[in-house]
Write a structure and sequence with these properties.
- With 585 residues, the chain is an alpha/beta fold.
- 47% of the residues lie in helices and 22% in strands.
- It is built from 23 helices and 19 strands.
- The strands form 3 sheets. Strands 11-12-14-15-16-17-18-19 form an 8-stranded mixed barrel, surrounded by 4 helices. Strands 2-1-5-4-3 form a 5-stranded antiparallel β-sheet, sandwiched between helices. Strands 7-8-6-9-10 form a 5-stranded mixed β-sheet, sandwiched between helices.
- Strand 1 and strand 2 form a beta hairpin.
- The protein is rod-shaped.
Length: 585
Amino acid sequence: MSSSKSTLQNELLAQAQTRLIEELQSSQRHYAHLVDHLKDVVFHLDENLSWSFLNQAWTELAGQSVEQSRGQSALNYFRSSDAEPFEQALLQLLSGELADLEAQYYLLRCDGDGRHVEVSCRAMRDDTGRLSSVVGVIRDVSERLESEQKIYHMAYHDSLTNLANRRQLMERLSSVCVPSSSRSIALLYLDLDDFKDVNDMYGHSVGDAVLQEIAQQIPIVGSSENYLAARIGGDEFIILFEQLASHYPTARAHLSEAARGLLERISRINKHVGTFNEIKCSIGITLVNSQSISAEECLKQADFAMYHAKRAGKNRIQFYDAELAKQESRRQQLQRELCEAERYGQFTVFYQPQVEADKNKVQKAEVLLRWQHPQRGLLIPKDFIHELENSDLIKPLGQWVLDQSLAQLSAWRKMGYESLSLSVNASAGQFQNPEFADDVRRSLQRFDIPGECLEIEITETTALNNVHSAIAKMRALKDIGVKIALDDFGTGYSSLSYLKHLPIDTIKLDRSFVQGLPDNGYDSAIVQSTLLMSKHLKLSSVAEGVESEEQCQFLKALGCELYQGYLFSPAISADQFAEYLLQRS
C-alpha cells in the first residue's frame, strides 16, 4: 500500500515538474518573443566584453545577424575614438567602480555607415555573487540628434545666408567679454547703402541674392577659428574678431585692410546678381579690450561707428572714436531738448530790420527763430538749427514760424504799417514739401496778408539741389505774389552760372563777405561783382551783418539797397520791433 502511494506521489511530482518546465519554457519563449520585437537592442556581454546575447533589433541597427555577431568583441563595433572610453566604462562596471552607464557613442555598421546610439547598461552577478557580465539596452538616437541639430541650427543661424544670427553673435560676444579675459577683440558692423533701391527696382528675389552673395564674401576676411560672421538684420552684417594682435596699430591696420577688401568685393557683386546698381556699404569698426566692455556696449560702439560712416557720405570705413561718441551724446540730448522745447512752447520769433541807409526807413524785417532754453537762456539758430533741420520738427515748426509772423504782420498793418513786409526763412525740408506753396497761400489767406508783403528766403544749396523742382515751387509762390530771396549768396554753388534761371527777386550778401569790408580785397571784389550783377538783373540787394559805418558807406557807394545788422538793430522781440518802427515813423 505504501509502495503504491509512493509511486503515485512520484508521478504527481513528475507531472508538476513537467508543467513547471513547460510554463518556464513558455515564459521564456514569451519574453524572448517580446524582447525580439523591441525596437531597441537588448544585449548581454560576457566578462570578455563579447556579445553573448542580442535581440533581433541588432540586425537592423548593425547590419549583421545576431548569429554572426555573437561571440564577437563589442568594442569592434564602435569607432576608435569611442571604443576606448566605452571599454574603460565597461571595466569600471565589472569592477564595481561604476554602478551603471548611460552614454552616447558612434556605432559602426557592417556596410560602412554609422549610427549615433545611446547605451544604457549595468553589471550582473553570477551564482557566486561576482560581477561577471553586463546587460543593457542600445537605442538608435541618430534621427533625434539630427532633429536637435536642425533645431539648434535654426535657432542660431540666419535662414537666408546661413551665417550666424543675432542670438549666436551675442552669446559668442558675451563669452569673450568677460573680466578674466584680456584679449583684444573687434566688431566690424556692415550696413548696405540704399539697399531699398535694389529691392524696389529689381524685386526682393534679387535683393536676397545680393545678401547671399555678401554672405559668401564675408568669410574671406579671416579663418573661422578667429572670427564669427553674422547677419543681424535685413541688410546688416557683423564680423566678430577674437584673435587680434595686442599691438593696437597692427590690429587696426589688419581691420582696415579687411574692411577695405570687403568694400571692394561688395562693389563687384552687381555683376554676379544682374543689377545695374553698384552695391555699396558703410562699415563701422570698434577695437576694444574684451575685459573692459560688455557685449551690448561693444555692439553699440560698432553701430555708432557705422552710423557716422553713413553720415560722412556712405561707402566708407569709420573707427569708433570716444570724442565722436561724446558729440553724438550731446546731439541726442539736444534732440530731446528740442522736442521738449516744441512741446512746452519755448520757441519764439524775433525780427531784425532791413533799412534804407539814406532814409533810415524800415522796409522789411527778417523773421528769426529764437529758443528760450530753460537752462542756457536765449539761443540763436546757430546753436540748434543743424539738429532741428535733421529732425521731424522742422516742418511743423517752420509752419508755426510762418503763422506767427503773418499774425504779427497783420497786427502791425492794422497799426498803419501797411508797407512793411517780412522775410521768412524756409528750410530745405520745408521748401521741398510738394504742398509748401499751398501752405503759404493758406496762411496768407488766414491772416488776410497780400502776397507781396511776404518774402521767402531760401539758400543757394536748397535752390540748386533740384533746380527744376525748385524753379517750379518758386513760380508757384510768385503766382500768389510772394517774393523770393536767395540767402547766403556766394557760399554754396557756383551761383553765377545758375542765377539767370532762378525766378528770384532779392540777393542777400552773406555776412562772411560783408565783415571783411572795406579792407579785404577778396571780399570787396566779391561784393562789388555781386551788386553789379544784381543791378543788371534788376534784383534787389540786401547786405547782412553790417556792423560799422565804413561797411555801410562802402556798400552804399556800390548801390546796395537794404542793410541789415547791428549798426541798425539786432534781432528784437515783436514789442521791441513795434517801438523801433514808432521811432522811425
